[in-house]
Design brief:
Layout (H helix, E strand, L loop, with lengths): L18 E3 L3 H23 L2 H24 L5 H28 L4 H24 L7 E3 L3 H17 L6 H18 L4 E3 L12 H16 L1 H21 L24 E3 L2 H6 L1
Antiparallel strand pairs: 1-4, 2-3
């Protein structure tokens, strides 16, 4: 048994120097903005303003994409940022969509509706924990299981689509939403492979047809944003599940990494403070 006297004092390194936390500001600010949108979504759901709650989750997904891209492009990835991102994602894409679905559509099912929404939250937490321990182990160009932001996008945009079509979440439609939440929960913790598109380099030259295809997508979504966002999210989630069930796309194709691919980092967020910094304090 080691002597407790040999252990460094909390907040100090083994050499006796004080440890300070040094983090990258810009990507972590984007992550906090993601958390803020999740919090606002919860407030709107409690107040019964479900449309604003759904929009807040969609905006949170935008910030979630920005923080990762900024961190990789500026070489500002860190363990602190990864942990903060997962905690914020659980609120914005786990708790907020679960609360929206329960208060809007599933409260009519009583305890069953409550447990189904909790199932989504719990599976989201498991999905994030599994992702964190698999970083650097699984292939970067595919996700194992449906990413929690996509699952949250499917649930929250379902409200936008129902509202646009003037559909009430009752009778068979309510049951459809009930089943959809269950399916999204299990697909998140499945082994189905979903493209991450991290191999897509937007800085390189591509064929002209890709620009035309992008324009068509933008115009289509702009015409009916509430409905088409739901269709796009649902298509992504459904195709991955179908390919997984039918064992399609099992042959892995090696894809080259690019500027957007996560880079390995050996940096420590807790660092020894220099003597000059201690004097200034």
């Amino acid at each position: 048994m080691s002597n407790s006297a040999d252990l460094p004092e909390e907040g100090y390194s083994k050499s006796g120097k004080k440890l300070g936390m040094y983090i990258y500001i810009l990507p972590n600010l984007m992550t906090v903005a993601n958390l803020f949108c999740g919090f606002i979504s919860l407030i709107f759901s409690i107040k019964g303003e479900f449309k604003y709650a759904a929009i807040a989750v969609v905006i949170a997904a935008v910030f979630d994409q920005l923080d990762g891209r900024l961190a990789r492009l500026t070489h500002a990835t860190s363990k602190f940022g990864a942990e903060l991102d997962s905690l914020c994602d659980l609120v914005s894409f786990g708790l907020a969509p679960a609360m929206l679905m329960y208060l809007w559509a599933l409260s009519q099912y009583g305890r069953s509706g409550m447990m189904v929404c909790f199932l989504f939250l719990a599976c989201g937490a498991l999905r994030l924990a599994r992702f964190n321990v698999q970083v650097g182990v699984v292939e970067k160009n595919y996700f194992q299981g449906l990413p929690i932001p996509m699952a949250a996008g499917i649930l929250t945009t379902s409200y936008l689509a129902f509202d646009e079509l003037n559909w009430a979440p009752n009778e068979w439609r309510g049951l459809l939403l009930f089943v959809m939440v269950i399916l999204m929960s299990f697909v998140m913790v499945s082994n189905f492979r979903y493209r991450s598109f991290k191999d897509l380099d937007l800085k390189e030259r591509l064929a002209f047809k890709y620009l035309v295809a992008g324009l068509v997508v933008i115009v289509t979504v702009a015409l009916y944003p509430e409905i088409m966002l739901f269709v796009l999210f649902l298509t992504y989630g459904t195709l991955g599940a179908i390919f997984g069930v039918l064992q399609l796309g099992k042959k892995r194709r090696q894809m080259r990494a690019n500027a957007y691919a996560p880079e390995k980092t050996t940096e420590e967020d807790l660092q020894e403070e220099s003597d000059e910094e201690e004097v200034q304090k």
